[in-house]
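Bench notes, afternoon.
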Amino acid sequence: MKKLFIYLRDYRKESVLGPLFKLLEAGFELIVPLVVAAIIDKGIGNGDQEYIIKMCLVLVALGLVGLFCSVTAQYFAAKASVGFVKKLRHALYSHIQGFSYQTLDKVGISTLITRMTSDMNQVQTGLNLALRLLLRSPFVVFGAMIMAFTIDAQAALWFALAIPVLSVVVFGIMLLSIPLYKKVQGLLDKVLGTTRENLTGVRVLRAFGKEDAEIASFEEKNEALTDMQKYVGRISALMNPVTYVIINLAILFLIHTGAVRVEAGIITQGAVVALYNYMSQILVELIKLANLIINITKSVACGKRIQGVLDMPAGETVEAGLETGSPKYRVQFARAGIRYNEGADPALTDVSFAVLPGETVGVIGGTGSGKSTLVNLIPRFYEVTEGRVFIDGRDVKAVDPAELRQRVGVVPQKAVLFKGSIRENLRWGNESASDEDIMQAVRIAQAEDVVVSKGGLDALIEQGGRNLSGGQRQRLTIARALVRKPDILILDDSSSALDFATDAALRKALREMDERPTVFIVSQRTSSIQHADQIVVLDDGKAAGVGDHFGLLETCPVYREIYESQFKKEAARA
């Protein structure tokens, strides 16, 4: 949590002036009981109406000055807390953007969303309260006790007794609450995760009639969160009644002691009222302090969760001194392999092949054989855990990720488009691309009819491309990758929604490009890859065969089985 305060450096002035003005307000507040005591002893006791009016004006002046100090303190505290969280949120978002797929899979999207939103808001609230009250409340408590001793030391002994007892109660409850609030935030992550899954998978839930089961699962997690919050709430709720009991008992003894000493002529009635007011101030401030501690406890727990994400390595560092491969190959896999988690079975093992510039590589295999994993190693979405991957002879780990991905155009399995015009979406590939460049990419991707039918490049696309069909989304995402004019183009099963004629036209257009990229085509259909320069056949994470279409039919049983299963079905239909 302490590491987060580096983001408060630009708000040092506000962080000092906020508490300072609060202390000034508290100082004026401590003078009020003395003024009231003077009104009682001198004004009312002597029947001096002019003195009473004069001192009442002093009270009004103290109130106005205190109000000005309070508003000023609130302004500086708000400016510091909002600015601090703005910088922290930017830093966290930027850090998350550097995470590898492995880290994102490990942490979980729902947890990251919670930390970017709910945890950030709690940290902001806690810092705002801390700047305003963390110094003010103890200052008033101990200031009131000191002022009480200046009035009458014997009566003020009840202050010295009540404050330590109250401190034990307040800090004891705080120590019990801190670990429980961490559990509350963890359960909140689970509720958010379930909600996110249900909303993103609502069509699947309805298709399989699982609404009731998911509602029950959500209710179970929500009940667990509610029960934990109630448990923590019951502990925290003890603070107010216990502190009230202690303070009121202290007030009873104080008034009794004061009455005895007034009767003996040692102190005045105004002094007893002043002592009572100081005790009441202590009560109010301790209640504030108790609630402040609860909020700060929550904020510290949330801050540690945010710090936990910031402490995670981005996983995309640039390593120096690594071995090099052959520079004549655009991409080279040298006994590459990966495990997604420590101790888990390898997703890929001992994969080796090399690709020349401009070649087309087909990647095929059964479900779960590691096709997407293989191509994700090229732009370092996942890191190899054994072996090497080279681009133009350089280990990808020795290349800056931004530079690497600038050379690679990736079309993922799930076609994702963002809300905005077609032009804005396609310029994700190259912000400076002209309309002519965009239309050239659109024509290669066989998406010209999509652009024309929608009314041109200014046509609006809804979030996620909801107003487009699956095939239209896929063609536009291919065009987006081509706008970048990449050296390496990865089509990760990105033509699954295209008909055979469109798929064939796309592959033909890619082969006829002036600056032909090295193309990796991941597909379940042998018809999409049989004309590739070489084909990598994966089976259970291993390379079952590498070669051209006709060679693999002769030497690779896995490829032959896939080919015959598809073409026999087509022959039977004919």
